[in-house]
Amino acid sequence: MNTTTRSSTAQRLGRWLGHGWRAYLRGERWLSGWLVRQGLPARVAQVLLWAIKLSVLGGLLYYAFWLALLLAFLVAATHGDWAAEPDLPEPEWREGPVGFGLYTYDGYRIDPHDFRDET
Asked: For the residues of 35-52, what is the DSSP string, one character each?
């Protein structure tokens, strides 16, 4: 009878993250002890470690801000109507300064015509 159970992906990921977190804490304790062995007071070593953590966090937030801003501009550029032409009224057939014809909204005749026929 086989009684081995298989761990789920979430359990393996949690175990992996836990091992990583414990390794980080071991490294931090080692660095703190090393600084104390070098003659730095324990309180100053702890403040120095916090300063390093805060500077790393600040750097990560700085890069995350610029990445989010770049992403926002890319989304705006792909969904925006910046390059679209404005909605102008369609040309219409009417009587204008040069006679009956196809005129744009601002009064220019755009259909082909012969000026000699207008006299």
From this structure: HHHTT--HHHHHHHHHHH
